[in-house]
Structures are given as C-alpha cells and as structure tokens.
Description:
Elements: E1 10-16, H1 19-30, E2 34-35, E3 40-43, E4 48-55
Antiparallel strand pairs: 1-4, 2-4, 3-4
Amino acid sequence: MAEIEQRLRYRLLTGPDDSVFCERVSAALAEGYVLHGPPTLTFDGERVIAGQAVVLPEPPRPNTVEV
C-alpha cells in the first residue's frame, strides 16, 4: 500500500542566517506554504540564528448554518 505523505500545516524553520536558510524558506514557499508573521533573529554568542514560521493555506470551508 502506498504511503500517503502528510505535510504539517505549521512549520517553524530555524537555522543560521545564511543562504542555506533562505533556500529552505524558498523551498517551503514553492511547496505551497505561505509566510506566517515576521522573521525572527537572535544571536547565540557565535552567529545570528533566523526563524520563520510558514503555514499551509487552509482550504475554504463550506458555509454551514445550524438551525
């Protein structure tokens, strides 16, 4: 039976603030994720660490009204 890939709806990408980190964010965007909030930066004593949250857009839900 084929394995169904289930993607996480929310991901927090972190890593050194370099081109590799930017490539990871770009890859997530190409996979259909969208940015969620601003990026964050911190310093670990040696280098700058970046973080960016990404989410999969939620498909529209049908309008249902309970009576």
